[in-house]
Each structure stands twice: as structure tokens, then as C-alpha cells.
Amino acid sequence: MTAPIRLLIADDHPVYRDGLASLLDPLPEIEVVARASDGAEAVALAAEHRPDVVVMDVQMPVMNGIEATREVVAAHPGTGVLVLTMGEDDGTVLSALRAGARGYLRKGAEQDEIVRAISTVHGGGVVFGASLAARIAEVLTPPARPERPFPELTERETEVLDLIAAGRSNPQIAQELFLSPKTIRNNITSILAKLQATDRADVIIRARDAGLGRH
């Protein structure tokens, strides 16, 4: 028979804390081993009882749930933390993730949803309420890198073009980029050819239109 999941519940509201314990402890797959009324107590009890999963409220006295999560995960990497709270703003979600939480559910979640989340976190998975999943993905997805203007140019040629658009002379560009005047002239010739520009003035106008030269 599989051993039950050892659970620590941390919440400063006794009615909710004890109610959740009464709801979960009778289940054969879960054993509530401790209850904490604040974040500091949660950290201490996690060290004492070594639970498999901690259900952690966010807003608690003495030490909030985010900081408590950080300490529990640092001291006991094998312990999964399921953040259970009233709010679901992006800042709280990100803070919980950064602190090491593996799950995040609202307090209004049904018993079956909470049990599934506890089981998933215990198994090493990550779970978030359906209403949060899309928003978390959106927050965590890095923004796309903006396309470089004039991709046909090399990075060096783009640097030179940027300085041309800023009104620098050839000697000034050479000095700023630590290159010889001849190299700068060669770069400018290449830029004119690749952009099929008629002259330097034409290049400056097109570069500024593309957002270059703003020094």
C-alpha cells in the first residue's frame, strides 16, 4: 500500500486551517502531520515533521507565505509547496514561483481540485488553477526580441550606420569604435551598396526613419 502524503497546513485563520485539515485528514491518501498559524511556525514545523507537501497561505503574520516558502524550499528541496490564497494577482503568482512554489490555487477551490493539486505537487509536477494557467504562461514568456533594422547589414555595419545617423563624421566614428578610418570607409561603402542608397544623406534619412541615430 502506498504511504499517505504527509501534509503541513499553514494558515493564520484557524477556521480555514482546521476546516481544511478536517476535510483532508480522513482521506487515505493524505495525512495531516502539522498545522501552522504563521510563516515562521511553518518553517519550524517543516523542519520538525519533514512533510511531503506544505499548503501555504500567503498573507500571514510574523513571516508571510512567500518568504516561508523560500525558506522551506531552500532547507528541504524535496518538499513541495502549494500556495493557497484568496488573491491571484500576477505579482503574487510570480513571487510564489520565484520563491519555489510548485502550485497555486485559490481558497475557493473544491476538495477534489485541492487533492489533485497536492498529489501533483507531491509527484514533482507543477499545478495552477485553470484561471491562472494562461496568465502565468503570459507573464513567464519572455518578450520577443525586436528585429534588428536592416538585417542585411552586419552588426558592425549597423553600429557604423547608427553613428552616421547620429551625425558623426568618419574620423569621429573611427575614434568611437576604435577602428581605422579606412575600415570605416569600407564599412560605409558596403552599407551604401547593401541598402542601394544613393549617398550618405539618403542613408541618414532611412536610418533615422528606422529608429537609429538617437544618441
Automatic annotation (TrEMBL):
KW DNA-binding (keyword) present: yes
Annotated InterPro entries: CheY-like_superfamily, NreC/VraR/RcsB-like_REC, Sig_transdc_resp-reg_C-effctor, Sig_transdc_resp-reg_receiver, Tscrpt_reg_LuxR_C, WalR-like
Record Pfam families: GerE, Response_reg
Domain Response regulatory, chain residue ranges per copy: 6-122
Gene3D superfamilies linked: 3.40.50.2300
GO BP field: phosphorelay signal transduction system; regulation of DNA-templated transcription
Coiled-coil segments on the chain, per record: none
Modified residues (4-aspartylphosphate): D57
The UniProt record lists the keyword Amino-acid biosynthesis: no
SMART domains cross-referenced by the UniProt entry: HTH_LUXR (SM00421), REC (SM00448)
HTH luxR-type domain ranges (all copies): 146-211
GO MF term list: DNA binding
Keyword terms of this UniProt record: DNA-binding, Phosphoprotein
Protein name: Response regulator transcription factor
Organism listed in the record: Nocardioides ganghwensis
